[in-house]
Specification:
Length: about 475
């Protein structure tokens, strides 16, 4: 399913102040625990994370791609299940940026740049980065850093949070504000944040191994990254927020050497996700580049190259060629969601609506409410003018995943198609709220209220208005 992000990206430097430090050798890793509750409780941490996420949705080019979202979610949760000290649900999301970066912030949110995925060479390398970010969250490094700054003035801590938010909109402005806010406290933080990085290395490596990945993925990826940008005047953001010294990499490799490595891991979905990113989002591989890999000795890479070629052909308005390219893959794995997604777009491009609906209905019966299949099914139903079916699918899905912006946007369009103005305005209100625009969200709920003739529905909508007003006040109080 092809879906365009609603917003454009300006920048995000969420963790620059917390994790930026020059790592140095340490003889041992002290047990520095999971403090931080005296400054930020777990409940408040979740509330702050919710505020950050609304800002990110409003400023970053999030990849609204159900296939990639499911892949990253499944990979991330596989690691979370092997983690200790998990206090709240985790949310994983892609940012469509060529820069190599990953970041985590309050409340269990982990963002991955598409450029980082391209830089990795194995799924274990990718998982090592995610595991590291998960460790920053489970060990509450942001909260603990704020606790460490208690000896600074309250103004400094407040300015620090404001600078982080400003950095989301403009990295230059954010870093300038940050320098003024914590200039006198910067050196005090360095030793503490060194310990955070080492702690995240140690915990992330153990989580990586318990989840069945190769622990060598961590030193391999970070070592290669450090070597590649050793003499660069402008290293990637990740090396600014997660500096890599030779001693730190050596320590990670020494630890990895003591852990077991799995044999013959299935990385087919990793390669499909990577080539999907390169074919559709970053667009740094041509049809010729994919064609040269069709006979690769690694069958997972060869299949992914065929898949990437089909995407390029489809996006170049060559659906017939794309269908021929994809056919062997789909025949071998008819329920593979990567393949079903592209095949659906191929059929819709050729206006073969009945075939698309039949294909997706069969898949939906096998995997009801799976994100990729449901979003494709609803989109195909809308395209085929089966609006009632789309509404039914989307309403059911949103009961399980109420913050899915793709589903909400599709449902708003479906309500508009059938002339349900109240339903359309209500869904638009949900979207605006998720992007942090509470005033526009409340205006849309008022419009929905005006369109409704039943007293029960008007009361429900008024209650929703009051909820959003309370949420707006709560988040404004944190700024």
């Amino acid at each position: 399913m092809q879906y365009t992000s609603l917003k454009t990206f300006i920048g995000a430097v969420l963790l620059a102040i917390t994790f930026a430090a020059v790592a140095t050798p340490q003889n041992r890793l002290p047990d520095i625990g999971t403090a931080g509750s005296s400054v930020v409780t777990v409940d408040r941490e979740q509330a702050i994370g919710d505020m950050y996420m609304r800002q990110v949705r409003a400023t970053a080019p999030l990849v609204n791609d159900p296939v990639l979202d499911e892949y990253l979610r499944d990979l991330g949760l596989k690691l979370v299940r092997e983690s200790n000290d998990v206090r709240f649900p985790f949310t994983f999301f892609w940012v469509n940026q060529n820069d190599i970066n990953a970041f985590a912030f309050f409340g269990g949110y982990v963002g991955m740049n598409t450029g980082l995925m391209v830089e990795t060479r194995t799924e274990s390398e990718l998982a090592s980065v995610i595991g590291h970010e998960i460790a920053h969250i489970t060990q509450r490094h942001l909260a603990r850093n704020m606790e460490n700054m208690q000896q600074g003035s309250a103004t400094s801590v407040g300015a620090m949070i404001g600078a982080i938010l400003l950095g989301m909109v403009s990295p230059d402005l954010g870093m300038a504000a940050l320098s003024g806010a914590i200039g006198g406290l910067q050196q005090m933080q360095i030793n503490y944040t060194r310990l955070f990085e080492q702690e995240a290395d140690r915990i992330g490596l153990n989580v990586l191994t318990r989840a069945g990945f190769d622990p060598q993925g961590a030193p391999n990826f970070f070592g290669r990254l450090a070597e590649k940008y050793r003499y660069s005047s402008r290293p990637p953001e990740m090396l600014l927020t997660h500096p890599l010294s030779e001693s730190r990499i050596a320590d990670t490799r020494q630890r990895a050497d003591q852990l077991p490595s799995p044999l013959n891991r299935d990385e087919s979905n990793y390669w499909l996700a990577k080539y999907r990113i390169q074919a559709r989002h970053i667009k740094n591989m041509s049809a010729n580049a994919f064609t040269t890999q069709l006979n690769h000795t690694n069958s997972e890479i060869a299949n992914a190259a065929r898949y990437g070629l089909a995407i390029v052909q489809l996006d170049n308005n060559e659906p017939e060629s794309a269908e021929r390219t994809l056919a062997p893959l789909l025949a071998a794995q008819p329920m593979n969601t990567f393949y079903l997604d592209v095949q659906t777009d191929i059929l819709l491009a050729q206006k073969r609506y009945d075939e698309a609906l039949a294909l997706l209905e069969k898949a939906y019966m096998r995997m009801p409410n799976e994100q990729t299949i449901t979003m494709n099914f609803a989109n195909a139903a809308l395209t085929a003018d089966k609006t009632d079916l789309a509404i039914q699918l989307l309403r059911e899905y949103l009961r399980r995943d109420p913050d899915n912006v793709t589903a909400i946007d599709l449902l708003a369009n479906a309500y508009q198609r059938v002339g349900d103005s109240s339903g359309m305005y209500e869904q638009r209100a949900y979207l605006y709220a998720l992007y942090g625009n509470f005033d526009e969200a409340i205006n849309n709920l008022h419009n929905a209220h005006k369109q409704n003739s039943t007293e029960l529905e008007r009361r429900r909508l008024q209650a929703r208005v009051e909820q959003l007003m309370a949420k707006k006040r709560e988040l404004e109080a944190m700024r």
